[in-house]
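Technical annex, item 7. During the second reporting period the consortium partners agreed on a shared format for inverse folding records so that results from different sites could be compared directly. Each record opens with the tokenized structure and is followed by the designed sequence. A conforming record, contributed by the partner at site C, is shown below for reference.
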């Protein structure tokens, strides 16, 4: 099983003559201890078209040092990466291969660069001798192992400052100030691999450029819609490893990206040909459903835990918490298996390839070439009228199952309006922001109501199970009643929240 840690480091330019300044003058650093020289040998792997490097991922097999093995680094933010480590093996470990699947999509991963480093290591310690950071000066030799630049080499010297686990990032700022005073400057490359690829690339390949061409700012309605779609597709791909690693909120964020993408393709049917996007929407609906089982379980478990915690101890009759934990564990196992099976399946990879093809050759309709204001406003208001119809239908229903269903349908329509307004915000500005904010308030009320409907169904099941096991079902009935009361409160709240979200002044502002 792979291990994971958060890596926070900064890189600096250096020469073989570079020496460390006195870093004990940095606040909190009491000693700088020389740990000696280490020889590292790392072979970096990627697809032939360097898909991992394009997304700033690095995959290496390294020997030497204290952490020999396979290392996969996933970018988090500038200077921050999650490093997943697996034991040394001749072939890529399955755990790491799974985390790369949304990027490589079945393409072989091969050695692309070998980097030899002679690392001179120093530890920065506090007054108690605890490690604050590791500073190393690396003599680097890189060799291209594949492609047209095969056999090309490059050599350089660099300095790394890596924060210790759970360290304060402010220390890196203080160390950098001291380094700058000594004439040491930040590196122009984010990683050894990035520099190696740039410096061993054949002339004319374009990889020696420090930066690629910037994408043109959106101008037409089609530009804006495609920019939003592109952003959601990237989020979908980038969140895949987070879901596989069971990172907090990973499933939720990936499901939201899937829904936003599907919603955009449906809302902006006058921009992107629905005859082409309809099958894509169907596949996105499938993926959202597979992710939904796990996300719905997360929401339900959090809600039941909160409700149970609010019950006085004298009213917790029977093994209430234990039964809930057992039920939750069983649901979690089933939902996690379902998510993993979906991400490991060929249908998912086919969807990702289809989305790439859609962006490479977008099925733009004539309206896509128009100015964004009229086209995007028209689409948002059309969705809003649909929401208005569903809200009206929900409010007309008597309390009970029919109202529950109608409010759930209204919730889905509210979410679609919100996503449409968010997609249009770069073009329409503050009116779209206000529109999305007020619609989100409606969605929140409807969402709490639907969560209560799901919770009541789960509570009834738990009560039946408890009764069948000879336990008291009193507490489950009490919680059921509280959910009914909460649902009634949301139903009373909805008209007022909706009135603020459907005012004519808001629609007029959106039209400008």
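Designed sequence (site C submission):
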């Amino acid at each position: 099983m792979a291990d994971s840690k958060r890596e926070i480091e900064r890189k600096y330019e250096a020469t073989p003559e570079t020496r460390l300044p006195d870093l004990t003058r940095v606040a909190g650093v009491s000693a700088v201890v020389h740990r000696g020289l280490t020889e590292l040998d790392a072979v970096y792997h990627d697809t032939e078209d360097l898909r991992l490097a394009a997304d700033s991922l690095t995959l290496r097999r390294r020997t030497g040092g204290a952490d020999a093995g396979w290392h996969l680094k996933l970018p988090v933010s500038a200077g921050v990466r999650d490093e997943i480590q697996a034991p040394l093996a001749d072939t890529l470990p399955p755990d790491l291969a799974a985390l790369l699947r949304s990027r490589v999509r079945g393409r072989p991963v091969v050695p692309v660069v070998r980097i030899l480093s002679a690392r001179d290591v120093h530890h920065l310690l506090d007054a108690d001798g605890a490690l604050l950071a590791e500073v190393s000066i690396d003599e680097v030799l890189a060799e291209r192992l594949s492609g047209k630049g095969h056999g090309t080499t490059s050599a350089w010297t660099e300095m790394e400052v890596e924060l210790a686990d759970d360290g304060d990032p402010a220390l890196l700022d203080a160390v950098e100030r001291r380094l700058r005073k000594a004439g040491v400057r930040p590196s122009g490359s984010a990683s050894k691999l990035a520099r190696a690829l740039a410096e061993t690339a054949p002339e004319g390949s374009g990889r020696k450029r420090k930066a690629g061409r910037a994408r043109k700012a959106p101008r037409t309605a089609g530009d804006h819609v495609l920019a939003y779609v592109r952003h959601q597709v990237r989020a979908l791909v980038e969140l895949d490893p987070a879901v596989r690693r069971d990172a907090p909120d990973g499933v939720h964020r990936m499901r939201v990206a899937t829904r936003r993408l599907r919603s955009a393709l449906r809302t902006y049917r006058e921009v992107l040909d629905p005859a082409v996007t309809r099958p894509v929407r169907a596949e996105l609906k499938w993926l959202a459903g597979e992710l939904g089982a796990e996300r719905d379980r997360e929401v339900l478990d959090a809600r039941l835990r909160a409700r149970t915690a609010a019950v006085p101890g004298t009213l917790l009759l029977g093994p209430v918490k234990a039964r809930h934990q057992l039920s939750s564990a069983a649901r979690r196992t089933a939902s996690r298996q379902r998510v993993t099976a979906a991400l490991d399946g060929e249908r998912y990879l086919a969807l990702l390839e289809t989305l790439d093809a859609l962006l490479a050759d977008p099925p733009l309709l004539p309206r896509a070439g128009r100015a964004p204001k009229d086209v995007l406003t028209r689409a948002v208001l059309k969705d809003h009228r649909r929401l208005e119809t569903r809200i009206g239908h929900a409010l007309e229903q008597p309390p009970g199952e029919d109202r529950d269903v109608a409010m759930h349908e209204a919730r889905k329509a509210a979410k679609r309006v919100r996503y449409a307004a968010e997609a249009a915000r770069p073009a329409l500005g503050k009116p779209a922001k206000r529109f999305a904010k007020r619609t989100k308030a409606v969605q929140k009320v409807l969402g709490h109501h639907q969560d209560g409907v799901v919770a009541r169904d789960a509570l009834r099941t738990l009560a039946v199970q408890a009764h069948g096991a000879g336990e008291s079902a009193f507490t489950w009935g009490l919680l059921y009643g509280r959910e009914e009361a909460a649902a009634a409160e949301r139903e009373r709240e909805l008209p007022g929240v909706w009135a603020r979200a459907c005012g004519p002044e808001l629609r007029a502002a959106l039209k400008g």
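The first helix runs from residue 51 to 54. The beta strands are 3-14, 31-46, 58-63, 69-77, 80-86, 110-125, 131-144, 153-163. All partners now use this format for quarterly exchanges.
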